[in-house]
Amino acid sequence: MNSTELAKILEEHKVWVTSLRENGSRAELYGADLRDANLRGANLRDADLRGANLRDADLCGANLCGANLRDANLRDANLRGADLCGANLCGADLCGANLRDADLCGANLCGADLRDADLPDLTYVIMGEEYYLQISNGEYIKAGCQNHTAEKWRSFTKREIAEMDGKRALKFYPRLLKIIDFYLGEGAHPEWLKEPESAEVE
């Protein structure tokens, strides 16, 4: 598929999304060859990308979320080496997708179907915790709406954590650090964690 054809499909899909499916047309890219395609910032919400070859594609900041798992269909898609930094994959169907070597730093995988997906090394979605937790490429950790490097998480002040979500965040923070240590190896913890819980936020 050439860039002109792709641009036309993306424009029609954008109209389809913004008009609540009344105008334009859905991007039907089933099995499409989109290797190395520039899809940076593209709105592909609810697009059909089943089996598409998106190897090494630039999807940085792209919207690939779905209202439900029947939409934003990336089932069995080849996303190996794709740049998905900051992409919105919330609710996307990634079942069986190849994400090996993809850059997921800052990507949102909340609610995505990752069954049988081949994820990059040191990439995890951790269920059953107080906040949504995602570790991407062994570097970035998303907790709730906060996304930072492991090093940054380990260096926050008590005030900075409290400003994220008050006492709830302060209570969860030690647990988060233990999770980071478990998946990525032990690292430094801030000295203020050794203070009595009653200590005021400075």
- Stretches where pLDDT falls below 50 for ≥5 residues? none
Helix content: 10-25%
The structural domain count equals 2
How far is the N terminus from the C terminus? 58 Å
**CATH fold description of the largest domain:** Pectate Lyase C-like
Shape: elongated
Task: Spell out the blueprint of helices and strands.
Layout lengths: L2 H16 L105 E3 L6 E4 L3 E4 L2 E4 H4 L4 H27 L18
Description:
The protein is α+β, with helices and mostly antiparallel strands and 202 residues long. It folds into two domains: 1-120, 3 Solenoid (Pectate Lyase C-like); 121-202, no CATH class. 23% of the residues lie in helices and 7% in strands. The chain is built from three helices and four strands. The chain has helices at 3-18, 150-153, 158-184; strands at residues 124-126, 133-136, 140-143, 146-149. Strands 1-2-3-4 form a four-stranded antiparallel beta sheet. Strand 1 (124-126) and strand 2 form a beta hairpin. It is elongated, with a radius of gyration of 19 Å. The relative contact order is 0.09. The model has no long low-confidence stretch (mean pLDDT 91).
Give structural attributes.
single chain; 202 residues; alpha+beta; Pectate Lyase C-like
TL;DR?
The protein has 202 residues and is of the alpha+beta class. The chain contains three helices and four strands. It is elongated and about 60 Å long.
